Amino acid sequence: MADAKSASTSPHSDNGSRRGSSNSLTKSKSSSEVKELSKQKYDSPFDASLVMARKRSQQERLWEIFTAYALQISSEDPTRIRVVNVVKLLQDCGIIDGSNTEEAKMIEKEVAIVCEAFLKTHPTDRDSTKKLDFTAFSALLLHFAKMSGDKDPSRAYDSLVRTCLEKQQKSRNRVVVAQELQECKKVLAAFEDPLTKIFMFYAAQSHSKLEIIDPKMAQYCPPHLSYAEAVAFGRKYGIISHGVLTTTEFATMYIDSLPKAPATEYDRVLTYAGFCEMLIRLSKRICVDNTVPADRSMKGLLQLMWLALSSTSPRALKITDVLKSDRLDVTKYFLNHFEKYWKKERYDNYFGDQPIRVESVDNPPSPSKPPMPRRLSFNLPPESETKTLQRRASVQTSPTSRTT
Q1: End of a domain among 167, 192, 225?
Q2: Which domain holds residue 336?
Q3: Residue 269, domain member (yes or no)
Q4: pLDDT category, 165, cuts 50, 70, 90?
Q5: Whole-angstrom Cα distance, residue 289 to residue 10?
Q6: Do 262 and 135 belong together in one domain?
Q7: Which H/E stretch holds residue 298?
Q8: Residue ranges under compositional bias (Low complexity) (predicted)?
Q9: CB–CB of 285/261 below 8 Å?
Q10: What confidence tens digit (pLDDT) does each residue in 179-216 have?
Q11: Can you name the residues that pair with 323 across neighbouring β-strands?
Q12: Whether residue 276 sits in one domain with residue 351
């Protein structure tokens, strides 16, 4: 009986021990699988892409803060920031003391000295001004991170950037023009030839100046408009002058038209695609009536550019902007192209209620020229009214006369 009992209980106990060892094995295996899965999850390309996306998002928000502070004192160039603005940014973020105590003032001076020393070793601007582009600004933040004493400078840099982003208020909203870009496709296609030539003329000026300042950037950057050349374009074609837009407003639209997430900082420039976006943003700002179709607003902007050039005296029009590659005067080319297009449109007045008075080229322009309005309203004209143009010449706006 005892043998039978032991025989009956022995396999049972063996099974129990096997089950126990099997359970412990399963648990250890499960634990190792979890660790392995966790490791795979951490090392997976998807996880790496999320980290890269977060870093890109950080860089884009930092770029917005950078441009906001670059525009605080003046709008000379919103793509470069002065040392005094960098110090102000660090104070506003709480990275350095911004109070009026003597100790805070000493810290401010020390930080400014560090910035000046860093700028000498990173000459992004080789003229008399002392400014940093975004690449040098990011390098400066990394320089501060290394000075913090942290063994991992990369971690210290991330912490510094996060502090800047967290302490800042909501960033300025970027004006999106994707829908308007689709609506203006036909107009942009119709004016692609003159607009491309205008762009290439100012891009050539930008490139020649950049070769002197930063040869490496000139080598790697695609054809683009620098901010200075974009302002020159805005003034020449009457967008900034005549009280239509301020330089600060123009600078904001220039910044919004740069690539949002470029592959490299060499690509953060105003290419032809960005130039077209900027024109659409300008047309939206100039036109106060949001109900006006985007393509009509765009035509209104082109008419404004034509008005600014045509209202100049014929003798002044002899000053040429020659595109060397085509030996072509881009200003006159745009004038002729717009007039041909406008003729097909039966000289429609895209300015709506804004009357247009046209004078002959043989007659001098009238002495009294009222300034162009700060905002233009492009209302659709009545169907019964048709604006006509007898001959191209000096064109001015007049509050009292109307050509029918």
Answers
A1: 167
A2: 178-397
A3: yes
A4: confident
A5: 94
A6: no
A7: helix 294-310
A8: 18-29
A9: no
A10: 999 999 999 999 999 999 999 999 999 999 989 888 88
A11: 328
A12: yes
